[in-house]
Amino acid sequence: MLVLTRKAAETIQIGNDVVVKVISCGRGRVKIGVEAPANVRVVRGELMEPAAIKRLLNVTVENTRPAVVPVA
Prior knowledge:
By secondary structure, this protein is α+β, with helices and mostly antiparallel strands. The protein contains one helix and three strands; from the N terminus they run E-E-E-H.
């Protein structure tokens, strides 16, 4: 993991297309902005946790059954 120190209004460039900018800092929080092309998905980390993914899909692993394909 690369760890960088930035001040408000400073940026980090990722590849050619993604820019992360520190918008503000204070009270134990950092506000950042991400500029990326429309085809690059930007998601908060907690949304990638398995429980959150299940909530987003509105299904549970226990209730998921394989599809039944009729035999001709």
